[in-house]
Amino acid sequence: CFAPHGNSANYEKIWNAPLMAEPYFDAVVHHEYHGKQGLGLEETDDLVLQAFTHPEPVFEQMAASLASEAPGYPVWLTEYNIGWDHLPEFAYTGAHGMYIASIFAWLNEHGDQFPIANFHQFYQDGFGTFLLDDETLEKHYTASFFVWKLLGDISRDATHVLPIPSGTIDLVVMAYASPEAISYLIVNKSGDARDLTFEYNGELMANAWTGEQIAYPDLITKIPYDTDLTTRVSGDGADIAVPGYSITVLRRALPTAPAGH
After folding, report:
1. pTM for this structure?
2. SS (H, E, C) the chain
3. Is the pLDDT of residue 255 over 80?
């Protein structure tokens, strides 16, 4: 299990490098916590919020470091989430939803290096997606539960997973294609609504689409337990509008499988 990067204890040299000299392992196990738990973010509040809604640069740096330290080895990212120090501020917020959906898309794009990844953790107040009342044994679901429910099985049957360039860091678009259909994950990290136009093999997609969407009122409001902000959406034609601070999953039927990827 590799130790954190960027720590003053210099774990890269005193722990990771000696491990790499050993011949008996076939994967690197790593944990990545965003903010004061393996990674210290010391910026102002605004920049910390930006870091949580746009976590990709931190993960890119982590991936590059691991590739340099352990070239050719897959990484099992067995834990990732918000760090302890920022849970009181960001758990159960739109920022946490942006973080979860953004890293989900990033890990799908980097599946060759990260074949195994596990959100930590699915049960527990703060970190988790649900908690259990000790007396009544009743479950209460957190805002992150509904994000994971929305993401669901979007990539399970996909034979092609493709990032779609959006031209801005505030918009993440991923395509998950199977022989029968194509699904899209759209993460709008901006407070402004956005209009998107979809093409397939150079032609506008005019067929009907259906999906589900979570739209947050803002990034910092705490969302009460058992509050499902998910709505069903549908339409037809190539143009699709997504609201600000939203996560959208939509699906379209395809006549044939995509080629060349």
Report:
1. 0.89
2. CCCCCCCCCCHHHHHHHHHHCCCCCCCEEEEEEECCCCCCCCCCHHHHHHHHHCCHHHHHHHHHHHHHHCCCCCEEEEEEEECHHHHHHHCCCHHHHHHHHHHHHHHHHCCCCCCEEEECCCECCCCCCEEECCCCCCEEECHHHHHHHHHCCCCCCCCEEEECCCCCCCEEEEEEECCCEEEEEEEECCCCCEEEECEECCEECCCEEEEEEEECCCCCCCCCCCCCCEEEEEEECCEEEECCCEEEEEEEECCCCCCCC
3. no
